[in-house]
Amino acid sequence: GAGVSQSPRYKVAKRGQDVALRCDPISGHVSLFWYQQALGQGPEFLTYFQNEAQLDKSGLPSDRFFAERPEGSVSTLKIQRTQQEDSAVYLCASSLGPFTYEQYFGPGTRLTVT
Amino acid sequence: AQKVTQAQTEISVVEKEDVTLDCVYETRDTTYYLFWYKQPPSGELVFLIRRNSFDEQNEISGRYSWNFQKSTSSFNFTITASQVVDSAVYFCALTLNQAGTALIFGKGTTLSVSS
Fold this sequence. Notes:
The complex is a heterodimer.
Chain A: E1 5-7, E2 10-13, E3 19-24, E4 31-37, E5 44-50, E6 53-56, E7 65-68, E8 75-79, E9 88-95, E10 104-105, E11 109-113
Parallel strand pairs in A: 2-11
Antiparallel strand pairs in A: 1-3, 3-8, 4-5, 4-9, 5-6, 7-8, 9-10, 9-11
Chain B: E1 3-5, E2 10-14, E3 19-21, E4 24-26, E5 32-39, E6 46-52, E7 59-61, E8 64-69, E9 74-79, E10 88-96, E11 104-105, E12 109-114
Parallel strand pairs in B: 2-12
Antiparallel strand pairs in B: 1-4, 3-9, 5-6, 5-10, 7-8, 8-9, 10-11, 10-12
């Protein structure tokens, strides 16, 4: 497609369940970012991939969060044993190259943990 | 450390009014990039503009204009003759001149334009 796509758009999980959120970046984009956006806040960085390499995961809030991009295109953010504080919108963004600073965002996945 | 401050949480205007959204940033780096993004109710962040730290020339794009002043570390955004479709949350963001550096966002300003 023309833009970044994410699925599912909405996810409700019971506390303790594992979830997987998918991101399809713009074709050919080398860089991929995940952000977490809490209600009423700006997005906050979680992790960065350059092709299949995860070069920065300093923003992941705990070891329950795990991301991968095995073939350098689609990425999955996995959250294990979800907790209520994980409720947020998870945004994926891609950019053409590591020094291309415009990031193009997907519509996000709204995760609600009950 | 880098920081972006958007002091205005919410702004309400009537159509055709001009409105300015403020953005103040902090960084010790001399090379950096500043951005504005729009987040309509649909939720998707839409890229509006990027400026680098060496280019202080103001920019105009249709009804949108941006005023970058390094002396005050500000990058303000003005919408002229606002329209209802401008209603959204607007985010100012900063990134450094390093490969793969994340965007650092402000908390956003919610703009409501009524008819």
